[in-house]
Design a protein that fits this description.
One of its GO terms (cellular component) is cytosol. GO terms for molecular function: 3'-5' exonuclease activity; DNA binding; DNA-directed DNA polymerase activity; metal ion binding. It comes from Sphingobium xenophagum. It is an enzyme of class 2 (transferase). This is DNA polymerase III subunit epsilon. The protein is α/β, with parallel strands linked by helices. The protein has a single domain, classed as 2-Layer Sandwich (Nucleotidyltransferase, domain 5). Strands 3-2-1-4-5 form a five-stranded mixed β-sheet, with helices on both faces. A hairpin with a 2-residue loop joins strand 2 and strand 3. Helix 5 runs parallel beside helix 7. It is elongated.
């Protein structure tokens, strides 16, 4: 049976734009997709950045220093996060930003970086599909009819949920998941039948033709019929 395709959609919230200047990750939200369909499994965590929250950043996501003060440090929850991510491809919107902060936090607690080969960037996909258009998450949700009316401020888990819907649309819509499900169903049926199940051979169609004697008998029988209907229709025509 074909192995299920697992991907993780994720989003982060931070104190700013540049981890190299001291900005930190304060929230991460992850959605598990199996064969491009949300499985229902998620990961969500807030982290204490051990620094103040700039007003501009708080205006975007609403996470204050007071709210984050009693949250755990990233290092204390890193094992749980990495266990959820496993070795699956990681999908993010403007993914280099999210990968940059994630890997910065991993380095701070002595863990290896997440390889950039696992990165899938939905902004890059959108630019290929819609060159010259707006590629923000809001603009693309509007383009694809994804409801974001409940999105008042940015939030890592909420944005990951929206991005999961967008990623499915950008990569072919629900039909991809349906096709994979059909393949799995066929494989399951084949498995139930077993490798030694009998396969009926395909035979060419048989040709049936009357013999000369049969045609002669048929002709004699037709001659005995009194005013057959097909002759009346032919004469009327």
């Amino acid at each position: 049976m074909k192995r299920a395709m697992r991907e993780i959609i994720f989003d982060t919230e931070t104190t700013g734009f540049d981890p190299a200047s001291g900005d930190r990750l304060v929230e991460i939200g992850c959605i598990e997709l199996i064969n491009r369909v949300p499985s229902g499994r998620t990961f969500h965590a807030y982290y204490n950045p051990q620094r103040d929250m700039p007003a501009a950043a708080e205006a975007v996501h609403g996470l204050s220093s007071i709210f984050l003060k009693d949250k755990p440090l990233f290092a204390s929850g890193v094992d749980e996060l990495l266990a959820f991510l496993e070795d699956s491809p990681l999908v993010a919107h403007n993914a280099r930003f999210d990968f940059g902060f994630l890997n910065h936090e991993l380095r701070l607690c002595g863990r290896p970086d997440v390889s950039m080969t696992r990165m899938i960037d939905t902004v890059a996909i959108a630019r290929t599909l819609h060159p010259g258009a707006k590629h923000s998450l809001d603009a693309l949700c509007t383009r694809y009819g994804i409801d974001r009316s409940h999105r008042i401020k940015h939030g890592a888990l909420l944005d990951a949920q929206l991005l999961a819907q967008l990623y499915i649309e950008l990569t072919g819509g629900r039909q991809i998941g349906l096709g994979l499900a059909q393949e799995e169903e066929k494989a399951a049926i084949d498995g139930e039948l077993g490798a030694g199940a009998m396969v009926r051979p395909v035979r060419p169609a048989r040709v049936f033709a009357a013999s000369a004697a049969e045609l002669e008998r048929h002709g004699r029988f037709i001659a005995t019929l009194d005013k057959p209907i097909w002759l009346e229709e032919a004469q009327a025509g």
